[in-house]
Amino acid sequence: MSATTAARTPAAARTLSTPGALAGTRTLVRFNLRRDRVRLPVWGLALFLSTLATADKFTTLYAAPEDRASLLATMDSPAGLAMTGPRHYLDDYTFGSMLGHQMLGFLAVLVGLMSVLIVTRHTRDEEETNRAELVRSTVVGRHAHLAAALWVAVIADLSLAVLLAAGLGAMDLGPDGAAGALVYGLAHAAVGLVFAGVAAITTQITAHTRGASGMALAVIGLAYVLRAAGDAGGDDALSLLSPIGWIQRTYPYVDNRWWPLLLCAALAVLCAGTGFVLSTRRDVGAGLRAGRPGSPTASRALLGPLGFALRLHRSVLAGFVAGLFVMGAMYGSILGEVEDMLGSIDQIQEALRRIGGATMAESFASMIMVILAVVASVYVVMASLRPLAEEHAGRAEPLLATGLSRARWAGSHLAVALAGGTALLLAGGLGIGVLGAASTDDPGLVLSLTGAALAYAPALWVTAGVASVLFGWLPRAARAAWTVPVYAFVTGYLGQLLRFPDWTNDLSPFGHVPKLPAAPMEWTPLAVLTVIAAALVLFGLEGFRRRDLQTT
């Protein structure tokens, strides 16, 4: 063998043994789909069935042309357009255009959330728990994790599009129903892929899963705000800065435009490509944004478990506080127009009459309080399950190896969840109260609506207690705590509109809260809920004290 050949052989061997950048992607896609074999069907079926139920209700509630004309008149206002979509839908307000106008922008947020969580779960979360480094030590390319996560998002979004197109295509929602259903379904897939691409970028910026998800969700929120502001003011240029504004301008069942879908596809490819490029400029487990150097000495608050837990939760809590205040303000801004907007809709009038109240505005505010409380409960579940994430990541074990007891460590996170959930109710109540007082010229609504929101605090504490019990005794089933806010929304809000039996609402802790300000205040159920919450929290902490730590 010549010297030249001998010199080249090691390099050739190294080249052959080095996997390509996308090596192992197909295997990771199958593995990720297996891991999400429950999550993805639940997401898809929830979005699909809620859409079909809404479309069916539209055909029932607005069967008569005069009913649709009355609804059109109430929607043709800045507040109505901000909460729904562009005014062009109102030019031909069939059942299909009604669905696209009122549901497309709302579901776009949920589809975006699903896509973001898919990408961050299978990329940044894998790196944060050190599983990615272990997998990449085998024959797996450097881009395989991100590519596999994006492919799973593509499969989830396109599957949802097929379900929506098939389900809505079988319904008579207007002319060109098949084409409208196809455009409606593909619009959801398109916006989901855009936000999956956004998540591909945010996962490169920060070294933490929560930070990557938070930045991507902030982009979704900004997109929704730009769309709402543009549609309310009739400024198409502002709405077109948002991908949610793009898909709403597909105008399913009205014009069935295809070019916004192409814009979304191009933006999704651009964002995904940017994510791949950025991933080559950082190490595994690290982020492009370097961590800020901390103070050489810890503050007195950080020396205790409660202060440290609050530090871990503060960014997510701050985002939820701002979001709940804005959400409450949006509903408060239309409180003065509720009589005109909903006065002709028999189904909603019946639901509001069941709630009670001296005025329709009071009844409507009582119904909205359930939505604010459910959103606050989402944070409560997240915060209550944070100890489980810390445990799985191996960060709890070093702390508990010191003199810190398990009860103090887990209890500090639960304390932040309980206090943080109450703060969210306060923010949402102030939002709807301040804007509601301005829209109705009734300053007394500030205190009454804030108090109405705070009345749901004991129900939130019970939610935290359920999460505590699952974390302490059944950690593998801890994510079942999410059924509490989901069930509360289905029975507490949709159940009022769809006339569910009263006993279904009684199974939720939120169903025992007085429907303020429409109903009179009752302290007994709130006291009982508080006692139940305390018992659940203590029981959960006892379970955690007895079991072994789990790491993944």
How does this model look, in words?
With 552 residues, the chain is mostly helical. The protein is 73% helix and 0% strand. It has 26 helices and no strands. The protein has helices at 3-17, 25-35, 39-61, 65-75, 78-83, 95-122, 124-128, 131-136, 144-169, 177-205, 209-233, 236-239, 243-248, 259-279, 305-333, 338-342, 346-355, 360-384, 386-392, 396-400, 406-440, 445-454, 457-473, 483-498, 502-506, 523-546. Helix 6 runs parallel beside helix 10 (177-205) and helix 17 crosses helix 18 (360-384). It is globular, with a radius of gyration of 25 Å.
What is the C-alpha radius of gyration, as a whole number of Å? 25 Å
What's the helix-strand series?
HHHHHHHHHHHHHHHHHHHHHHHHHH
Number of helices: 26
Separation of the first and last Cα atoms: 50 Å
Measured as a percent range, the helix fraction is over 70%
Q: Let me know the average pLDDT.
A: 87
Q: Quote the beta fraction.
A: under 5%
The structural class is mainly alpha
General shape: globular
Q: Give the strand tally.
A: 0
The poorly predicted ranges are 1-17
Largest sheet: none
